[in-house]
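[recover] target loaded
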């Protein structure tokens, strides 16, 4: 913040000044005043009634000791006491003050400016009484060659000092009296138009002009003075100049003098211009210089213009022209054209095809040896042992053409060409130009298979459609991917369209696929002709034999393997079974099919043997080492007797049973048996042999089967035991205990009959003994009377009771192997 006292100070200063400084008074006094003195000039604003103090008049430094001014104390007038001379002093600066004796200012100081008003009391003067000047012939009219100078001491800017120049007289007045003209205000002397045309014929001798200078401007009155101008006419030395030849790169000290001009007239100023601007100069004497080395290649010629000018920069005459020619030096090597993109030439183009035209530019003077360029092919060099070259070069024109050597599509070929100036002469400058030539591919290679003959391929008749049969590979010598794309087709041999081709567009692999089911009967073999073609149009010779491949396909007939009447076979055999026992017979499912040959594959124990033709499986030796409850699995192979390759294998599982168990062969001759329910590991041996000699005679096995009744089929199971006996067991865990007649169908030697096997199913004790009295039970119905039945029944009860007691006493002995009540049951036939 500006303090308040500073504000006050700033505001009070102008007030104080205006009070202290009084406005300047201007007073004018005529120069050389001829009237009465003192001459009152002006009344000063002195304060009224100030009796005290004295007037002090002071002046500026230039004032003479005796001041021509005074102040009248009475009237307060400023007055001048004598005549004033403006040329002595044009102005007076006065100060008037009222002071006390001790110097204290009571009023003022009042500044007063006294101006002395000019009177034309001065005569003009020429700077010289005689002007001598040379005038060159050829000076243009109106161009001043002399400026007259004169002065007048009267006040500048007034008519009193306003000067005018005039020619009063010309001597001689030949050939015209007004050969010259003088500009009145400037005093510029020039040839008049008339004078310039007739100057050549003019006298050789000098002209004398009487010239006048006068003040008061164009008014008739005024002071005047005269002078003489002595003009001698001189011959023009302003001559046209011969062109100058300057070597480029000239090694000399600079500036280097090259020419000279001279204007013979007076007061000349030389001026030089270069078109285009160049390193040239002219000095005051008219000597022309080159100031630095020149380069022809940047500028071959300069047109110089030299002007002779007067002091006001006006041309005395036409400028002189000077042609500077820069002479060439072989300082430029041929320049290769800028390296462009590779030049593309299709392969197998004919010899003479122009590849490119190299135009190395030499900046040196055109048409001179310095710019005469010849060409030489540096690379590729001709290969040893080959006739002709891949490229030919015309040394004069730089044109590169294809040579006799054919070019194939490959990588880029770099061309190197030497360009030499001086027409190839020694000492010439050179450059190596490079061009890349790309030999572009054309589709001149047909695709070919790598193998034209494929080994015969065997296809089973049941090969599934879609199966890959063969893969063929074809290659193409072209480089361009578009020219390598192939198209495949089966051209011949695929009569029923059973085959097809599949391929990826960019690979040479083609897959031969099976499309349909094969049939040996329809077509036992195929001779497929596969062709490959280029997708793009081929240039040159057509496809050769390699474009075809032959695939031979042989169809294999498939005969189904023999089928057997069961998927697998099982037999249960007591471990005590003697050698030679028939276990079961393996038979074809279709008895009418072609005969089979059977064999055992892995009967490692050697327990079994099989009849090759009939398929009967026997024990080959006693089953030593077999443990009851064990299983023995062997593979049985059945071969087609006519076609041994057709074969099938089935498993045969033998379950070993306990020797002497219910089904033990100790009881084979016992015709009837009981079976326990719930089921125990017991069975009933059924003999196929019959008392009927018609049925029993002949060899060959008996076959057993349950009767067709579904309940029988559900409840019972029959298994072959050996060739003549079978083993009947319960199929269910629980069967109602009673007597059953189980129908068993026996077949033997193409004859078939039915047995009804009587079996008693009963509850058994822990030893497997039937828990009902069976001893007196008659197997066959008899024609007994009621009395007989009753008596028999009572007898049976008695015997039953006896048996129970006997059984109980025997049970205590715990001898399961010798059951006293194991009464054989008689089987009814
Ligand atoms: C004029 O110049 C010429 C030649 O320079 C000379 O002979 C002559 O005396 C001069 N005249 C006067 C008046 O100076
Ligand atoms: C080809 O064989 C298979 C198997 O034998 C069969 O399922 C299919 O229907 C057959 N196809 C033709 C077109 O015959
Ligand atoms: C025989 O071959 C079958 C099937 O390979 C196999 O299950 C069985 O255990 C083999 N039998 C013997 C005694 O090696
Ligand atoms: C078949 O087995 C029964 C009962 O075990 C026997 O009586 C008969 O002699 C056997 N037959 C042959 C050929 O082994």
């Amino acid at each position: 913040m500006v303090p308040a006292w500073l504000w006050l100070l700033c505001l009070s200063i102008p007030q104080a000044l205006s009070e202290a400084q009084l406005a300047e008074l201007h007073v004018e006094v005529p120069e050389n005043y001829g009237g009465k003195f003192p001459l009152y000039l002006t009344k000063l604003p002195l304060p009224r009634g100030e009796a005290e103090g004295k007037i002090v008049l002071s002046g500026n430094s230039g004032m003479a000791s005796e001041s021509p001014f005074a102040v009248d104390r009475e009237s307060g007038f400023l007055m001048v006491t004598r005549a004033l001379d403006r040329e002595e002093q044009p102005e007076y600066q006065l100060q008037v003050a009222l002071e006390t004796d001790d110097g204290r200012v009571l009023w003022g100081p009042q500044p007063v400016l006294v101006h002395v008003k000019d009177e034309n009391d001065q005569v003009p003067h020429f700077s010289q009484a005689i002007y001598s000047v040379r005038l060159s012939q050829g000076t243009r009219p109106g161009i001043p060659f002399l400026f007259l100078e004169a002065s007048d001491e009267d006040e500048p800017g007034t008519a009193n000092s306003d000067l005018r120049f005039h020619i009063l007289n010309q001597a001689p007045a030949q050939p015209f009296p007004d050969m010259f003209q003088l500009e009145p205000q400037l005093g510029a002397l020039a040839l008049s138009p008339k004078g310039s045309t007739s100057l050549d014929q003019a006298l050789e001798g000098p002209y004398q002009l009487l010239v006048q200078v006068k003040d008061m401007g164009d008014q008739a009155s005024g002071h005047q003075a005269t002078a003489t101008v002595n003009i001698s006419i001189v011959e023009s030395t302003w001559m046209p100049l011969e062109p100058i030849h300057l070597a480029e790169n000239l090694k000399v000290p600079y500036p280097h003098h090259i020419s000279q001009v001279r204007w013979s007239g007076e007061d000349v100023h030389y001026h030089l211009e270069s078109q285009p601007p160049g390193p040239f100069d002219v000095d005051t004497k008219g000597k022309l210089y080159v100031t630095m080395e020149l380069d022809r290649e940047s500028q071959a010629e300069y047109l110089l213009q030299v002007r002779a000018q007067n002091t006001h920069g006006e041309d005395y005459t036409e400028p002189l022209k000077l042609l500077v020619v820069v002479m060439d030096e072989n300082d430029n090597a041929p320049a290769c054209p800028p390296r462009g993109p590779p030049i593309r030439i299709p392969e197998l183009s004919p010899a003479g095809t122009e590849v490119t035209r190299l135009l190395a530019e030499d900046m040196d003077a055109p048409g001179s040896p310095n710019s005469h360029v010849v060409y030489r092919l540096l690379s590729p060099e001709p290969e040893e042992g080959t006739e002709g070259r891949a490229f030919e070069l015309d040394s004069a024109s730089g044109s590169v053409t294809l040579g006799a050597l054919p070019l194939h599509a490959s990588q880029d070929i770099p061309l190197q060409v030497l360009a030499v100036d001086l027409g190839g002469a020694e000492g010439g400058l050179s450059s190596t130009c490079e061009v890349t030539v790309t030999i572009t591919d054309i589709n001149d290679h047909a695709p070919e298979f790598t193998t034209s003959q494929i080994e015969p391929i065997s296809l089973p008749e049941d090969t599934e459609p879609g199966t890959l049969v063969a893969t063929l590979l074809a290659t193409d010598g072209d480089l361009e991917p578009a020219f390598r794309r192939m198209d495949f087709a089966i051209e011949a041999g695929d009569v029923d369209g059973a085959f097809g081709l599949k391929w990826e567009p960019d690979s040479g692999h083609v897959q031969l696929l099976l499309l349909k089911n094969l049939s040996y009967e329809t077509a036992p073999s195929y001779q497929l002709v596969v062709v490959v073609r280029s997708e793009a149009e081929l240039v040159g010779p057509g496809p050769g034999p390699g474009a075809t491949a032959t695939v031979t396909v042989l169809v294999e007939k498939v005969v189904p393997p023999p089928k057997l009447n069961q998927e697998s076979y099982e037999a249960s055999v007591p471990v005590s079974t003697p050698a030679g026992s028939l276990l079961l017979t393996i038979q074809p499912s279709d008895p009418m099919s072609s005969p089979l040959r059977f064999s055992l594959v892995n009967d490692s124990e050697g327990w079994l043997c099989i009849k090759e033709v009939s398929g009967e499986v026997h024990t080959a030796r006693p089953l030593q080492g077999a443990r009851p409850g064990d299983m023995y699995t062997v593979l049985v192979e059945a071969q087609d007797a006519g076609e041994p390759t057709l074969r099938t294998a089935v498993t045969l599982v033998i379950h070993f049973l306990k020797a002497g168990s219910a089904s033990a062969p100790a009881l084979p001759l016992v015709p009837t048996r009981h079976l326990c329910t719930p089921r125990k590991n017991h069975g009933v041996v059924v003999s196929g042999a019959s008392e009927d000699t018609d049925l029993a005679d002949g060899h060959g096995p008996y076959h057993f089967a349950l009767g067709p009744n579904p309940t029988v089929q559900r409840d019972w199971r029959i298994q072959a035991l050996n060739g003549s006996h079978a083993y009947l067991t319960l199929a269910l865990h629980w069967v109602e205990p009673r007597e059953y007649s189980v129908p068993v169908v026996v077949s033997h030697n193409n004859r078939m009959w039915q047995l009804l096997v009587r079996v008693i199913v009963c509850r058994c004790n822990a030893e497997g003994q039937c828990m009902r009295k069976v001893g007196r039970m008659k197997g066959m119905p008899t024609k007994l009377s009621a009395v007989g039945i009753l008596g028999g029944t009572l007898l049976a009860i008695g015997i039953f009771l006896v048996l129970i007691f006997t059984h109980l006493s025997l049970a205590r002995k715990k001898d399961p192997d010798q059951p006293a009540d194991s009464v054989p049951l008689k089987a009814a036939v």
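[recover] notes: The radius of gyration is 78 Å.
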